[in-house]
Structure to design on (398 residues):
């Protein structure tokens, strides 16, 4: 997409899906705003809060063993293996490592994909802690339009922890999976003349049918976060972009505005449409590492962070058969490792990550464009790398 205009064989378009094909994906994830309508998440007008720097030269050559691997790998090698576009590591609140690759620059923004869910989950859990949402009430109490859908008799807690029983496949490899019908409904472009399906995220959510029982098994389904976004908007009178700006982004002292992609009626995509600068997501992670406090303010209640760190129902999680994530759980739309450091993480397709290790006082944020969507492609050379770095920082503090 270089030129005025770019050569015909280099032009990417939202309408034909070419923007999401690899290797074009490597450009698109850092330029979504050029391809689709968006809504701003303002950082406000005050000066950004500086992140102190104490860069270290001993990280690139750190060795670790990949999951199920036979040969060790260095931290630097893992970044190339995972198609990293940008990565920053905070230790005790200071930047100790920062790298950019591909087209992403320090002042650029990148799609966070399903890391978005963890931001929305944090806001939802905050409203629960404040008493504005009752986690034990059913979704239909807040959004009567969903009463006849699978969500109508689900509780807010079941939505937050994704233990809803829904007929909804998140299998990106299956062109008939409901995730594609969801994406089509949320597509802001005009629909074909013969299209008779839902034309917005709100309309699609009302069509989701039940499958199984609520509260029994974890099932990772993006529509849960869209429902939570609808509940948040109904309770607060603000959409998730406006509320995120008001309650978190402005108070973090972010360097850059962020933004959400939107559907044809301007609804922010709560399940995966957030885009932000790398360091600003690091500020968000550092705030959580400090029990919800940042820059002299309690931005998120400590009780919310404590609840995330405790994790969710391990037995419910195990039923989802994530073989690379044994012993993990899911709480308030965060993935909880339950390892010896108490690490928890936000995860998005193609390799997006916020990884918080409380014991090591470490926050890692990574943007990536792995050609394989599922995190199983990244985990073998990501999760052990993060843990190895945590142990290294614990053993060699500065």
């Amino acid at each position: 997409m270089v030129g005025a205009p770019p050569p015909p064989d280099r032009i990417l378009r939202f309408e034909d899906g070419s923007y999401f094909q690899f290797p074009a994906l490597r450009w698109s994830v850092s330029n979504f705003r050029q391809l689709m309508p968006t809504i701003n998440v303002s950082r406000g007008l005050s000066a950004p809060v500086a992140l102190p720097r104490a860069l270290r030269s001993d990280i690139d050559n750190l060795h670790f063993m990949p999951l199920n691997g036979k040969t060790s790998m260095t931290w630097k090698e893992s970044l190339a293996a995972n198609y990293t576009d940008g990565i920053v590591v905070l230790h005790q609140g200071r930047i100790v490592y920062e790298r950019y690759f591909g087209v992403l620059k320090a002042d650029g923004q990148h799609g966070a994909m399903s890391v978005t869910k963890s931001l929305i989950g944090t806001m939802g859990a905050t409203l629960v802690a404040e008493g504005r949402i009752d986690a034990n009430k059913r979704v239909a109490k807040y959004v009567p339009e969903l009463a006849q859908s699978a969500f109508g008799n689900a509780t807010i807690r079941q939505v937050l922890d994704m233990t809803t029983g829904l007929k909804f496949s998140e299998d990106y490899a299956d062109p008939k999976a409901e995730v594609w019908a969801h994406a089509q409904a949320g597509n802001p472009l005009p629909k074909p003349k013969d299209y008779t399906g839902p034309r917005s995220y709100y309309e699609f959510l009302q069509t989701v049918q039940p499958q199984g029982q609520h509260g029994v098994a974890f099932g990772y389904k993006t529509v849960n976060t869209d429902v939570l976004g609808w509940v948040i908007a109904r309770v607060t009178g603000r959409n998730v972009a406006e509320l995120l700006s008001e309650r978190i982004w402005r108070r973090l002292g972010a360097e850059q505005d962020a933004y959400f992609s939107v559907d044809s009626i301007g609804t922010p995509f709560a399940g995966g449409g957030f885009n932000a600068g790398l360091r600003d997501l690091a500020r968000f992670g550092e705030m959580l590492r400090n029990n919800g406090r940042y820059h002299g303010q309690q931005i998120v209640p400590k009780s919310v962070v404590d609840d995330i760190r405790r994790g969710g129902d391990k037995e419910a999680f195990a039923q989802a058969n994530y073989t690379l994530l044994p012993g993990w759980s899911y709480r308030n739309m965060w993935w909880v490792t339950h390892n010896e450091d108490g690490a928890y993480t936000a995860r998005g397709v193609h390799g997006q990550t916020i990884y918080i290790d409380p014991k090591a006082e470490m926050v890692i944020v990574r943007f990536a464009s792995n050609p394989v969507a599922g995190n199983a492609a990244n985990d073998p050379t990501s999760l052990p790398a993060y843990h190895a770095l945590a142990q290294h920082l614990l053993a060699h503090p500065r």
Observations:
- The mean pLDDT is 96.
- The chain is about 30% helix and 15% strand.
- The two ends are 43 Å apart (CA to CA).
- Residues 379-395 form the longest helix (17 residues).
